[in-house]
Amino acid sequence: MVVPLSGSERPDRRTEARLRERLQKVEALHAGATTPGERAAAAEARTRLLERLQGLRRDDPIARFVAEHVAALAVPPTRAAPPMPMPTLRQVLGVLAVWEAGDLTAEGVQAWAELVVDRVDLPDGCADPGAVRAEVILQLAALHRIQLTPEEVPDIRRFLRSGGEPGGWSEWFELLARVARGARRSSS
Q: What is the pTM of this model?
């Protein structure tokens, strides 16, 4: 059974309607004000009317009930998928071997690497575990920029097996620079 609310429990809808009507008039007055004093007075009146309207809403048990239930029905944000583990050295070497054999295109290698980059937590620094694999995977994901080819797979393999030694990093960056220079010469 629905029990009607008494006047003391439920704000009078007529009061709210009158306040809204007055608010419209005050806003029109503010828009047409010709002096700074008129504008200031209209702005103060508008602020007072908005406060009274908010007070009515705050004191309205139905508005509170609806607000509480809408909040309870809200769907929590979805959590991000847990990160995928970094591919092992063996897995990366396997992709390179398939590419080198001609059974995988550069586009296929790039798509695999992009998927990995999007789903793994990459190491922060070059001395961190997995940094060499991450570097190779990042470069493979950017094959559209530095166009490594299956002919460079032996050099990539050597870098992967270097374990992140400084000499390995130097050779890797020399390889990338050489490939980038070659791409610039062929496009000229």
A: 0.56
Residue 8 domain flag: no
Distance between CA 106 and CA 104 in Å, rounded? 7
Q: Residue 27 domain-assigned? A: yes
What SS3 class is residue 120?
A: strand
78: three-class secondary structure by DSSP: coil
- First vs last Cα of the chain: how many Å apart? 85
Contacts for 161 with CB less than 8 Å, ≥ 6 apart: 89
Calpha distance 140→82 (Å, rounded): 23
Tell me the per-residue pLDDT of 87-105, one tens digit each, with 9 for 90 and over.
Answer: 999 999 999 999 999 999 9
Please give the residue range of the domain that contains residue 41: 13-73
Q: Which amino acid is at 72?
A: A
